[in-house]
């Protein structure tokens, strides 16, 4: 149910300079989704009366994401005055005049915070009507870069000092500001007007509102979060990989508890949108990415990457790289297969060792076991493609299709020069370059007859090891 007394402000206007990236910081992927998408999903789950996202840097690209993930959010453009305080000030100015509730401020770069933790936090704030603001704090192992919570002699919360502005004593404080706050609207509005840019970074700090509220005699509280990793902020790529590893550990554990065997959680990566059935086994070095789904009993890995793939019940996919591929029930893939988009393998089929497939529909029970390229092709059911076969789909101008029927047996080292059709039950000889369609049930061969020139080595290569071996041979 919509919380009519809650407005959420999502801060996403910062430049993200510490990322040193041409990709906007908040668009760097984390478990397969942009950083900001995690935050927008959390904001959405809280179902507030108003959501405002503040943008400036890379405005258009982020606006598109917000419109997709959180369409109910109002967008506010931050002006040239920098700082989290200015961002909140402009957002507050955009709230409807009749709104009079609590304002939750969250950061676009604090992605692991979940809706349940925030709901508890809002509740903690609302427990005492006289509290003007509540700050989420934490005790992480590495406090570098975070604002510190400064408490008075009696332990009560006094103010926040930014890392860059802090004295050595203040930097020694181990309680940090998570960058997440609930404010009573009127108290917030009053103090925002007094913010200055008088600090090391020349920004309007939202954190200064806390000190100002205290100076004005208001009560503020800092509520520590039990698990510091929930409020990890991402400013640089080291924090990005730390946060990704933590989130992955949580995701992997979740699947383990849901009945998935993960042999080596440290080398197994599962994106947030992937789904795995119970009794799936993931072997070391496996990445289940995007919207990949894996059905029960399938064994994936070791050393396998699957992006947006669909793996059927009981299938085995070993040492494989796959994108947008569908693998049937009981089928086997790999080791060392490369499945490109449009690969579809039927039940009990096989794509074997050193095989590359693209736009290839391979029917039930059909096999491409060794050293082949299958592109722009359809293979019927229960056919066997010989070792070392190439589907020559490209004539230098266009990609052409090949259609192989059912119960076909093709010899080793064939080239199918597309466009081509091979009828049901047909055979081809080893080494055939198939340039013409083959009728059902026919045998196609086009290799020249073999000629053995007896004695050629001893005559033309006298004195070589080959010639000696030949002369000593009993044949
Ligand atoms: C901020 C807090 C710090 C806290 C930390 C927690 C301030 C002044 N400091 O520091 O106390 O420990 O978060 O992670 O608030 N943003 C804007 N407009 C701006 C600047 C930033 O919208 O002008 C947004 C950013 O896009 C980001 C968030 O605000 O999502 C935080 O900004 P960032 O510059 O990362 O602040 P920190 O230095 O991490
Ligand atoms: Ca930050």
Description of the structure:
This protein is an alpha/beta fold. The protein has two domains: 229 residues, Spore Coat Polysaccharide Biosynthesis Protein SpsA, Chain A (Alpha-Beta Complex), CATH 3.90.550.10; 185 residues, Hexapeptide repeat proteins (UDP N-Acetylglucosamine Acyltransferase, domain 1, 3 Solenoid), CATH 2.160.10.10. The chain is 21% helix and 31% strand. The chain contains ten helices and 35 strands. The protein has a 19-stranded parallel beta sheet that branches. A seven-stranded mixed beta sheet has the order 5-4-1-6-10-7-11, with helices on both faces. The longest helix has 21 residues. Bound molecules: uridine-diphosphate-N-acetylglucosamine and calcium ion. Pfam families: NTP_transf_3 (PF12804). Its cofactor is Mg(2+). One of its GO terms (biological process) is peptidoglycan biosynthetic process.
Keyword list:
475 residues, alpha/beta, Spore Coat Polysaccharide Biosynthesis Protein SpsA, Chain A, UDP N-Acetylglucosamine Acyltransferase, domain 1, 2 domains, 19-stranded parallel beta sheet, 7-stranded mixed beta sheet, 35 strands, 21% helix, 31% strand, binds uridine-diphosphate-N-acetylglucosamine, binds calcium ion
């Amino acid at each position: 149910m919509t919380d009519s007394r809650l407005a959420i402000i999502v801060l996403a206007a910062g430049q993200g300079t510490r990322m040193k990236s041409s990709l906007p910081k908040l668009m760097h992927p984390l478990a397969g989704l942009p950083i900001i998408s995690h935050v927008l999903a959390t904001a959405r789950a809280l179902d507030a009366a108003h959501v405002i996202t503040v943008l400036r840097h890379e405005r258009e690209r982020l606006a598109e994401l917000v419109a997709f993930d959180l369409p109910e959010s109002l967008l506010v453009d931050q002006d040239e005055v920098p700082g989290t305080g200015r961002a909140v000030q402009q957002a507050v100015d955009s709230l409807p005049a009749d709104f009079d509730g609590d304002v939750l401020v969250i950061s676009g770069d604090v992605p692991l915070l979940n809706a349940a933790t925030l709901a508890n936090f809002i509740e903690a704030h609302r427990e005492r009507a006289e509290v003007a603001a509540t700050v989420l704090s934490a005790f992480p192992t590495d406090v570098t870069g975070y604002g510190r919570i400064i408490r008075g002699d009696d332990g009560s919360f006094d103010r926040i000092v930014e890392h860059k502005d802090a004295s050595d004593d203040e930097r020694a404080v181990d309680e940090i500001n998570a960058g997440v706050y609930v404010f009573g609207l009127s108290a917030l509005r009053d103090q925002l007007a007094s913010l200055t840019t008088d600090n090391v970074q020349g920004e309007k700090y939202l954190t200064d509102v806390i000190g100002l509220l205290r100076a004005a005699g208001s009560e503020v509280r800092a509520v520590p979060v039990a698990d510091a990793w929930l409020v990890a902020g991402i400013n640089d790529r080291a924090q990005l990989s730390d946060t990704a590893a933590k989130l992955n550990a949580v995701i992997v554990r979740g699947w383990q508890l849901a009945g998935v065997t993960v042999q080596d959680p440290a080398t197994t990566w599962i994106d947030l949108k992937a789904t795995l059935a119970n009794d799936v086994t993931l072997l070391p070095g496996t990445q289940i990415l995007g919207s990949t789904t894996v059905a029960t009993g399938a064994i994936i890995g070791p050393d396998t990457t699957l992006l947006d793939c669909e793996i059927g019940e009981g299938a085995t996919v070993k040492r494989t790289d796959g994108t947008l591929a569908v693998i049937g029930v009981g089928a086997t893939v790999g080791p060392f297969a490369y499945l490109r988009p449009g690969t579809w393998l039927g039940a009990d089929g096989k794509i074997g060792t050193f095989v590359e497939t693209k736009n290839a529909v391979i029917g039930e029970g059909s096999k491409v076991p060794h050293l082949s390229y299958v592109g722009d092709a359809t293979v019927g059911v229960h056919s066997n493609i010989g070792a070392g076969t190439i589907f020559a789909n490209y004539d230098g101008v266009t990609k052409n299709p090949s259609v192989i029927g059912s119960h076909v047996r093709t010899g080793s080292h064939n080239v199918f020069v597309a466009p081509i059709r091979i009828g049901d039950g047909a055979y081809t000889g080893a080494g055939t370059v198939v340039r013409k369609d083959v009728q059902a049930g026919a045998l196609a061969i086009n290799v020249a007859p073999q000629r053995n020139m007896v004695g050629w080595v001893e005559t033309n290569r006298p004195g070589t090891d080959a010639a000696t071996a030949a002369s000593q041979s009993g044949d």
